[in-house]
Design a protein that fits this description.
33% of the residues lie in helices and 18% in strands. With 378 residues, the protein is of the alpha/beta class. It folds into 2 domains: 2-130 and 315-354, Rossmann fold; 135-310, NAD(P)-binding Rossmann-like Domain (Rossmann fold), CATH 3.40.50. The strands form 4 sheets. An 8-stranded mixed β-sheet has the order 3-2-1-4-5-6-18-19, sandwiched between helices. Strands 11-10-9-12-13-15-14 form a 7-stranded mixed β-sheet, with helices on both faces. β7 (158-160) and β8 (163-165) form a beta hairpin. It is globular and about 65 Å long.
Length: 378
């Protein structure tokens, strides 16, 4: 098969979809690999490393794309000219089509087969291709490092000749991969950590990391709005004592839930820091802004949108290994095979032969179409 690695075009994106080590493995499996010139430079991989791995270097994206092949990308060719794509191409990337369908529709119109990596099913079999979990691991780690740099307080308990320095208190809201990683790193740095998630089963995962779980028991018969208000009110005493709050709750294809209201921010102490990891879909904090530092009554609020790119080398290696596994899932004896009977393949498939084929996306598009009501003439 012909496999293509393109250079990412969006601003501040330093990751690359495949690394020289993975390219070498793909070549050893009998594939032809073409890498766009400088695709890996920002992640620490120069063209010469790809050449040594067996790849050819293309001077620009259209030459790299060529007439056919599997195209490996981080952001699904966002802000890239896709006019050279045909039905002989397969595009892999993070499209987030349940939130923003426009990019997927643009790729669909070329006739290419399109897979969105953020539609990966939550199953044991899909773990090897789960780039969301891989990137969330990096994001959770990087969030704590960012906070440690910005906070006016040390993380660990220190007993010194100058006196005792108490440990920082960290509260993490959302116990997905990023949230759990943030808890684990905070604990390793010596902070006392409390975690919360709306899912009761996540509380044990929080405790398994050595953190304390915040348990706000549900009330019988409450509506979702009443539940949210109860949680927000119950969380205020915990946030009031926190030096650092990290929010990491996201819903696939939907706006991020508001976990921290303005009232809750105002209950936090001056000098405290809040890092919102869900800002790309509106944020978990009512006051957060994308990639903007907000100061509100002495509390600093950060809304970083692409922390994984700040640790590009490790993030790229993890991403590349996930894509290697996905390419192997899509191939059979050197040929591209789209097996719709495979749950992993079918769930991630967005478009084929010029049509949107993913049922979740189709249902959302149908739901968003304006309903036309016929009016009878009297």
């Amino acid at each position: 098969m012909r496999i293509v690695v393109v250079q990412e075009q969006i601003e501040n994106e330093s990751r690359v979809a495949s690394t020289p080590d993975v390219v070498e493995e793909l070549v050893n499996q009998g594939n032809e690999v073409c890498v766009q010139s400088s695709a890996g430079v920002l992640a620490g991989f120069d063209d010469e490393e790809y050449v040594k791995a067996g790849a050819t270097i293309a001077p620009d994206v259209s030459t790299a794309i060529g007439e056919e092949g599997i195209i490996l990308s981080i952001n699904g060719l966002l802000q890239t000219d896709v006019s050279s794509l045909t039905s002989k191409h397969v595009v892999l990337g993070l499209l987030d089509p349940l939130w923003d369908i426009e990019q997927a529709e643009a790729l669909m119109k070329t006739g290419a087969t399109v897979f969105s990596l953020d539609l990966v099913p939550r199953s044991t079999r899909a773990q090897s291709v789960d780039v969301l979990s891989s990137m969330a691991t990096v994001v959770g780690f990087q969030a704590v490092l960012m906070a440690a740099h910005r906070m006016p307080k040390l993380f660990p308990l220190l007993i010194t000749a100058a006196g005792t320095i108490p440990p920082a208190k960290v509260v993490v809201l959302g116990a997905g991969v990023a949230g759990l990683q943030a808890m684990a790193i905070s604990r390793r740095l010596g902070a006392t950590v409390e975690g919360f998630d709306i899912r009761p089963e996540a509380l044990e995962q929080i405790r398994s990391l050595g953190a304390k779980s915040i348990d706000l028991p549900a009330e019988e018969g409450e509506t979702p709005l009443e539940r949210d208000q109860r949680i927000q009110k119950g969380m205020i005493p915990y946030l009031a004592e926190a030096d650092l709050v990290i929010t990491a709750a996201q819903i696939p294809g939907a706006k991020s839930p508001i976990l921290v209201t303005q009232e809750m921010v105002e209950a936090m102490k001056p000098g405290a820091l809040l890092v919102d990891l869900a800002v790309q879909r509106g944020g978990n904090c009512a006051l957060s802004e994308t990639d903007v530092e907000v100061m509100h009554q002495g509390v600093t609020i950060l809304g970083p949108s692409n922390l994984a790119a700040d640790m590009a080398l490790s993030a790229s290696r993890m991403f590349a290994n996930n894509l290697l596994n996905l390419v192997q899932l899509l191939s059979d004896e050197g040929q591209i095979v789209i097996n719709r009977e495979d749950e992993v393949v079918d769930t991630m498939l967005v478009a084929e032969k010029g049509e949107i084929v993913n049922q979740a996306i189709v249902q959302k598009l149908n739901a968003e179409e304006p309903q036309v009501t016929e009016r009878s003439e009297s």
